[in-house]
From TrEMBL:
Alphabetized Pfam families for the sequence: Mur_ligase_M
Name of the protein in question: Folylpolyglutamate synthase
UniProt remark on cofactor binding: A monovalent cation.
NCBIfam families linked to this entry: folC (TIGR01499)
Positions of Mg(2+) binding: S45, E114, H142
GO molecular function: ATP binding; metal ion binding; tetrahydrofolylpolyglutamate synthase activity
Keyword Chaperone attributed: no
EC number: 6.3.2.17
Family named by the database record: Belongs to the folylpolyglutamate synthase family.
Pathway field: Cofactor biosynthesis; tetrahydrofolylpolyglutamate biosynthesis
Length: 492
């Protein structure tokens, strides 16, 4: 209906599936090839604030004018030609079609397509002959659709492999790797395992995306890019061998300048007007599987301790005191010591299992000596399929909070079990957080449920105004939708 078969067959596509790290791997891949001088198209999901984030041309989200022109071109044709037998495509299928249309019309040199869910039956898997395929780390997610074992999940993801098209993956659990190898041999696919990037190859620079796990994604991106360059006639074989021992300058620049909203992102609240410093800082990571929450907790634990965080965000000279039981003692410029309190702001989809997610998060933080003073549970406020960033929020009175109460019960029972961990402590921050919770729907000893995200953020801002001696460090995780909603509210 959209006459896209031929344009898709001519596109030089990199197709990426996986449970964790798809977005990061695609972002690194796009950044490398853009820095090599190619005109790039990148399709990812979900979006955090505006649907246009899913369609990137040369690293920038598509402008509103072009987006609307392509949107209506596709929509009007489909509306005209669909009927009861062939109905309008669903939301994600429509967006995937739109991505193919945009990249074809804009004549990109390379289209990097991130699978939405699974692989075999994903809308992006209309690609018959990609140049190269990538499969990122596999784990348990969307089990209600993809299966209950790692083998079943791996089978779905391996569905993007095509006959004789090179594919790369990262080190995987044995159960998953066996399935990937079996599918590869059936399709005569040369499947290779990409080693994690050796940090020394970056010449002293840091990856653009934070977190130790990003070295795994970067290693995969390097092989996807070098294979794409080779198979499209831009590189000799010898160059491929080289990337393992010495990275070309464009690769280094691509890896160190890549950026992705909502993954290990630190944002001070830009709506609080402080004379000297920002006392409310959001640490945002859209982790939503047990493994990625563990990685998120490790990142958060390191990030709040890094002395340079204090220097960079607040322009103060930090002392070298170490974090103890969630409190940092700072004496910038000889002022009164400043404490910091860690707060968790959490929500996840009802298909996820909080009994798998929350213990991983809590234990990893506790292993690093970080304890949350309070956990806040909120419903999502996004209207996900709204075009543009002006979506309205539902009224607070009619929101069903039963899921948030479930999350709260899991958290409270975990905290009761951790009584012996010395996670408490009677300090100004703890006392300050105990009172004044009338805006919450349910306040327990260690947590509170708020009927809306704006109310939770208002409560945090009020705490900051009332207690200037404490810096609040808020970890926002469990859902990319929640992260996007918070970004919308705290960024100017």
């Amino acid at each position: 209906m959209l006459d896209l078969e031929e344009p898709i067959s001519k596109m030089k596509i990199i197709h990426v599936a996986g449970t964790k790290g798809k977005g990061s791997t695609c972002t690194f891949t796009e950044s490398i090839l853009r820095n090599c001088g190619f005109h790039t198209g990148l399709f990812t999901s979900p979006h955090l604030i505006d649907v246009r984030e899913r369609f990137r041309l040369n690293g920038m989200e598509i402008c509103e004018e072009k987006f609307l022109a392509y949107f209506w071109w596709c929509y009007d044709r489909l509306k005209e030609k669909t009927d009861d037998n062939v109905p309008m495509p669903t939301y994600f299928r429509f967006l995937a079609l739109l991505a193919f249309k945009i990249f074809a019309a804009e004549q990109v040199d390379v289209a990097i397509m991130e699978v939405g869910l699974g692989g075999k039956y994903d809308a992006t898997n209309v690609v018959q002959e990609p140049i190269v395929c990538g499969i990122t780390s596999l784990g348990y997610d969307h089990m209600e659709i993809l299966g209950n074992t790692l083998g079943e999940i791996a089978g779905e993801k391996a569905g993007i492999m095509k006959h004789r098209v090179p594919a790369f993956t990262v080190p995987q659990p044995d159960e998953a790797m066996c399935v990937l190898k079996e599918k590869a041999s059936q399709l005569d696919v040369p499947l290779q395992v990409a080693p994690p990037l050796d940090a020394k190859l970056l010449n002293g620079l840091k990856l653009g995306l934070e977190g130790e796990h990003q070295y795994i994604n970067a290693g995969l991106a390097i092989l996807l890019c070098s294979t794409w360059l080779k198979r499209t006639g831009h590189l000799e074989d010898s160059y491929l061998e080289q990337t393992q021992h010495c990275l070309p300058e464009q690769f280094i620049k691509g890896l160190t300048t890549a950026s992705l909203q909502g993954r290990a992102q630190i944002v001070p609240d830009q709506h609080i007007n402080m004379e000297s410093s920002n006392e409310l800082v959001f640490f945002l990571d859209g982790a939503h599987s047990p493994e990625s929450l563990e990685a998120c907790a490790s990142w958060f634990s390191i990030a709040i301790k890094e002395d340079n965080l204090d220097q960079n965000l607040f322009g103060q000279q930090p002392d070298n005191s170490k974090l103890s039981h969630g409190l940092v003692n700072l004496q910038p410029g000889g002022r009164a010591r400043k404490q910091s309190a860690q707060i968790l702001l959490f929500n996840c989809l009802t298909v996820r299992d909080p009994q798998l997610l929350l213990p991983r998060l809590m234990k990893t933080c506790a292993d690093n000596g970080v304890y949350f003073k309070k956990a806040l549970f909120v419903p999502s406020l996004s209207v996900y399929n709204k075009v543009g960033s002006h979506s309205i929020t539902p009224s607070e009175s009619n929101v069903d909070l039963s899921w948030q109460f479930t999350l709260q019960r899991v958290w409270e029972s975990l905290m009761q079990g951790n009584k012996g961990s010395d996670a408490k402590g009677t300090d100004a921050a703890s006392d300050e957080l105990k009172d004044d919770m009338e805006v919450s729907a349910s306040n327990c000893e260690h947590s509170a449920v708020f009927p809306s995200l704006p109310l939770a953020i208002k409560w945090l801002r009020d705490r900051v105004q009332k207690n200037r001696s404490v810096r609040f460090q808020v970890l926002v995780t469990g859902s990319l939708h929640l992260v996007g909603d918070v970004l919308k509210l705290v960024k100017k």
